[in-house]
# Entry
Amino acid sequence: MLELIDVHTYYGNIQALKGISIHVEPGEVVTLIGSNGAGKTTTLRTIQGLLRPRQGKILFEGQDLSSSSSPEIVRLGIAQSPEGRMIFPRMTVLENLEMGAFHRQDKAGIQADMERVFTLFPRLQERIKQKGGTLSGGEQQMLAIARALMARPRLLLLDEPSMGLAPMLVNQIFSIIHEISDQGTTILLVEQNARMALTVANRGYVLQTGEIVLTGSAKELQVNETVRKAYLGEE
Amino acid sequence: MKPWQKIVLYLAIVYFVLLLGPIAGLDLPRILKEIAQSPSLLITQLLVGLINGAIIAIIALGYTLVYGIIELINFAHGDLYMLGGFAALTVVGAFGMQDGAPFISAIIPMLVALLVAAGMCAGLNVLTERYAYRPLRNAPRLAPLISAIGMSFIFQNLGLFWGGLRSFIPIMGNTAAAPKSFPDLLPRIDIFRSLGIDTKVDFTTKDLIVLVVAVVLMVSLNWFVQNTSAGKAMRAVAQNRDAAKIVGLDVDRVIVLTFLIGGALAGAAGLLVGLYNNTIVFTMGFTAGLRAFTAAVLGGIGNITGAMLGGVLIGLLSALSDQYLSSRWTDAWVFGVLVLILVFRPSGLLGENLQEKV
# Structure
């Protein structure tokens, strides 16, 4: 479904991705784990067309994305819940969700998706008229995911959905991610919380300073010596 | 000293300087006496201030919309409004309108003038964005600001040139730089007296028409931004440009739309000020632009309601200063407000500082 082939991305002259290759198959949950500054967010931003790869190819269902604009990429079926949530603080919950579906014309479909996200996140329905900036951190995270779902993506990019949340909320968010995946959306999940990420993912990649150093099924990674030491905090 | 005592002390010092100094003559007892002698004059001045303020507010909206979207103070905006006035005068002249032309025959020329002025200013503003600001979008903040000041000079000289085209546009008069008289086309029927209310307050149909048009423009803009999907896209880009890109908004198109709307409003304001004050001059964009900018900052730059409120407050302040202080010092009062706001409340009256939660 999605394939990155030897992608190099730079911020100015600083190389953030040093030739990474990953692939995501339909229906999968794939996770990218790694520490701060490993290039996880850069990878997602490159997929979405917010950064341009200097070298390499990004294929989505066979189509090369490396010269497509972000609006085109969203239309093709890739939506993102970005790091730090980035909701629109002075727009209501409803307006934030509408923005997620901005490029769509099918009113009935939008309405159906609105109901779907309210089933997933009943909290958002309670706060439908409230301004995004007045929500709690966990609610903002739900809103960011819900807004991405409003694009009816076939591939959902999730960037650090657990960041800054209390453990109970983290569990809740991950069970929702599980549910979204069960409903048939393919997910590429970026996480620092490797333990949680590996419980929902089918496969994973370990990213270190812009390079993929390890890959395997979630089960393999969970028992891998390096992963356990570096990312799961076990001896 | 406690902070409030300090403030009171400063205010007292400032008051006595202004009272005793030869300049501004802020003599409150005299002013109160004048108001008591002729309260209707106060009301008349408040109405004048309200109408001029509404026009300032329309210009201020252009500043605030653009600032909200790309954080640029578009210093060329005032001069764009001046060009709107010139376009309107040209159209009205081409229809052969003169002072005292019957209102019925002036309706169509005025509507055409509105469309031409708004359309021309919208187009110019979009071109300015495309060629003077967009190439500098990722440059340091100062670069587009200087570019905007440059555009302001270009527009002023364009206005000067336009004013000199008397062989093509006779209504421009003989001297390029001189103020142009704008035909008095709106009927002046005294509303209160024709309703049988005996009062000294002057409020004519002319005032009413200008006020209504200005309010309609502001209300429709507000409605557009709050309720249409294009307006919501504008707010989204203003609130978080990165997030807007991520949800797939075409940010460049939203910016173009913003300049289009701001320009159209400036053009409309150019026509209104011509019809209301019956004189336009190629330098008027400079002062009006600074006043509108002050209004936008006063209300909280980036805030649409704030720009409207700020415009009306600045209009009222100017009118009261013209009447009760000295018209020579009106600009000093207005820009004094700008200084005070920037020092004590840079976010403006309605500026919100909604923190994003992490």
User: Anything to note?
Assistant: The mean pLDDT of chain A is 93.
